[in-house]
Structures are given as structure tokens and as C-alpha cells.
UniProtKB/TrEMBL annotation:
It catalyses: (S)-acetoin + NAD(+) = diacetyl + NADH + H(+). It comes from Cryobacterium adonitolivorans. Keywords: NAD, Oxidoreductase. It is an enzyme of class 1 (oxidoreductase). The active site is at Y157. GO terms for molecular function: diacetyl reductase ((S)-acetoin forming) (NAD+) activity. NCBIfam families: 23BDH, PRK07231.1, PRK08643.1. This is diacetyl reductase [(S)-acetoin forming].
């Protein structure tokens, strides 16, 4: 498709690979100027350069989403360098296995600091920027199919994604008065490095072959195939654009038919 600048700016956390990269690429194709924010600035730089760099409407931004100040700084840098701010996609996250009997205070703290706290800081930073710029905006966060139905072996990951949905529903009510919509997208099983690592770990923990690990997550997909990251990005594209202006507080499942609401 031919890219036509739409005058809007989006920031995507975890934009250096996987789903986040696909989202950044799709929003850029839609005409957004995009900030690719990642803790790994090298991968973020590579994505930004592949989209033409700053002259082409793409910049790399370093962010540690578990650090509130870092998230606020990333949003401020985006506003300064790209000349505005309209959409934040809180996509960054980790997905370690967490057998119930092995959960510790440290493992809880680590995953919530990234997956959940990072969304809190993103909502706060985006709201501050939108209000200072004098307009509304769109806050879009990564939930998961595992945030609608608990998945085996990943109790903490599922817990963070359920929490993100609850947080986003409340934020949608609280921020509507400012013209800000708040939604989540809930991927199923997507072919990404993160998912491959998780499937291997689940299998290893159970003493099974890698194929068994994949089966624990892929069985029950109505469409009988894994998702491509670009398919998730398409849903985020919809939530970022004007066609979704009357949608808030929702979690859109893009899982090939694993969970039906």
C-alpha cells in the first residue's frame, strides 16, 4: 500500500520485534509517524531505519517500561521529535512460565513490574501528553487470550493480562471525559520469538518434546492455524484509527477462535 501521512503520531512499546514490530510497521504504513520504543535500542533502531528513519517518520526510543520516569521520558521525546502525540500502544511484555508451586515474591514482582506497571505508566504518560496538547487520544494495550481464560503453566502471565483488562476498563470510564479511549487487543498464539521461547519452556518443564509445548497453546483454535503478527497489527490499526472512535473499554480477541464472548 502507498503510505500517505495522516498527521498523527503513535508510540509502540516493545516495538523492536515480534508483534510490536508488526504494529509499528502497520501504523507507519497507515500514515502515522511512529516512535519504536524498546529496552533494546539496537532492535528499535533497526526497525526505525527500515521505515526510513526520522525523515521517513520513524524514530527509535529507549524505554524501560518498568520504570515510570523512563516511560514518561519516552512519551516526551516522541512529542518533541515527531511533533505531536495521538496514540500509545502499550505492547511490551514478558511471558515466563510460572508453575503454581514455583511462584515467588520475586517472580511476581518482575512480571508485574513489566507487564502491568508498564501499562499503568503508559496510560499516565499518554494522558498527560494528550491533555497538554489539548486533544483526546487513543490508549491501546496488549491483553491476551490468556487474559480471558487462564492458560496452563503461565499463571502469572495470565494474571497480568486479566489485570490489564480491568485497569483498562476503569481507565476508559475515568478518561472518557477528556476524549480519550482505552482499549486492549488480545492475541492468541502468534508466531513470534516470545511464543517460541514459551512453548519450548513449557515442554521442557514437563519433560516433553517441543511439539507438545506448542500443542498446549494451539489446541482448540477454530481456524486451525497460528496467527501472524501482521493479523494482530491489523486490529491495532483499527483501534488506532477513526473507525474505532466510538469504542472504549473493550478487549478485542484476535485468537482465531479460541475464546468466544
Amino acid at each position: 500500500m502507498t503510505r500517505t501521512e495522516n498527521g498523527k503520531v503513535a508510540l509502540v512499546t516493545g516495538g523492536g520485534q515480534g508483534i510490536g514490530q508488526a504494529i509499528a510497521e502497520r501504523l507507519h504504513a497507515d500514515g502515522f509517524r511512529v516512535a519504536i520504543a524498546d529496552v533494546n535500542v539496537e532492535t528499535a533502531d533497526a526497525v526505525a531505519e527500515s521505515l526510513g528513519g526520522k525523515d521517513g517518520g520513524a524514530i527509535a526510543v529507549h524505554v524501560n517500561v518498568s520504570d515510570r520516569d523512563s516511560v514518561f521520558a519516552a512519551v516526551e521525546q516522541t512529542v518533541t521529535e515527531l511533533g505531536g502525540f495521538d496514540v500509545i500502544v502499550n505492547n511490551a511484555g514478558i511471558a515466563p512460565t510460572s508453575p503454581i508451586e514455583e511462584i515467588t515474591q520475586e517472580s511476581i514482582s518482575k512480571i508485574f513490574s513489566i507487564n502491568f506497571n508498564g501499562v499503568v505508566w503508559g496510560i499516565q504518560a499518554a494522558t498527560k501528553a494528550f491533555r497538554e496538547l489539548g486533544h483526546g487520544g487513543k490508549i491501546i494495550s496488549a491483553a491476551s487470550q490468556a487474559g480471558h481464560v487462564g492458560n496452563p503453566g503461565i499463571a502469572l502471565y495470565s494474571a497480568t493480562k486479566f489485570a490489564i483488562r480491568g485497569l483498562s476498563q476503569t481507565a476508559a470510564r475515568d478518561l472518557a471525559q477528556f476524549g480519550i479511549t482505552v482499549n486492549t487487543f488480545a492475541p492468541g498464539i502468534v508466531k513470534t520469538p516470545l511464543m517460541e521461547e514459551l512453548a519450548k519452556k513449557v515442554a521442557a518443564d514437563a519433560g516433553k518434546a517441543e511439539e507438545w509445548g506448542w500443542e498446549q497453546f494451539t489446541k482448540g483454535i477454530a481456524l486451525d492455524r497460528l496467527s501472524e503478527a501482521s493479523e494482530v497489527a491489523g486490529v491495532v490499526s483499527f483501534l488506532s484509527g477513526s473507525d474505532s472512535d466510538y469504542i472504549t473499554g473493550q478487549s478485542i480477541l484476535v485468537d482465531g477462535g479460541m475464546v468466544f464472548n
